[in-house]
What we know:
Chain A has 65 residues and is mainly α.
Amino acid sequence: MKNRLKLLRVERGWTQEQLGQALGVSRQAVNALETEKHDPSLDLAYRIAVLFARPVEDIFDNPHA
Amino acid sequence: MLSLGPKQTTAAGRRYVIRTMAFMAGYVAINLAAIFGAFDEIIGAPVAWALALAVSAPVMGQIWATLMLLRESDEFVRSVIAKQFILSAGIAMAIATAWGFGESYAGAYHLPAWIIYPLFWACFGVVAPFVRSSN
């Protein structure tokens, strides 16, 4: 799923490891999200949205829209 | 036996490695003792079933360790490992089935059934590098 996760992470100067810790997932999971090798669950998508204080669809493109 | 990278860096991954090494140490120890004749007196007797179950217990333990890794990992790691596990199990079963019918119909050399376990992990080792996505 296309997303702006890497852009948002880099804007804040975070590493994948730091973002993973903030979200409660592994660095591998963050990398997989950024490289579109993993579509997040709704729960994880909302956690990401809360962390970056943005709506989910600002971070993840809705493939059905 | 499982890995998503050059080394296990998550707490769940480290617990998995410790559990697997502990179970495999038991598996190797019992088999080495058998190879060096520690159980020669009971081989072929009904009591040897206890030995067969004892050497199988670490295998069940290792599968439990894998299931715990799935439970304790995040959604991406869980999904990828599950895909790798299912694919490897399918390939191992297909190979074992083909060989079994080879024994029945084509006179293939008889292989012991316990070989399915190392065969499964061999398949896992081949499959895992190619399954890196949860999609």
